[in-house]
Give the backbone structure.
Amino acid sequence: MLPNRIKISKNATGKLRYLKSQTGLTPNILSRIAIMLAIREGSDLSNAGVGEMEGGQELNDTTLFGEYIYIYDILINQYIYDKNINLSTNDTIVAMIEVGVHKIGHIKALEQLCEL
């Protein structure tokens, strides 16, 4: 079961704001993309480097996952199971966003994001 609220780090919040200015996509959509990239790449979350949480953005589950919340629930929980992750679901999602945001941090235009 996904947590009701997810607070991302101050660093990820800043990167998402930057990416929004470059692409026009909102932080929740960019976070969804970041999560899917972390899943696709099979990322090791042990090096996620989750930073300072104070000042980070907080998203509720319906905003973060939208109408696809149940699909994300299945995908994230399967990922936790497959990778034998010992973090809480909340911490796993935060780490996935950190890893994914790092992977898209170089994006300068929406077209580049579409190429991923």
In short: The mean pLDDT is 90.
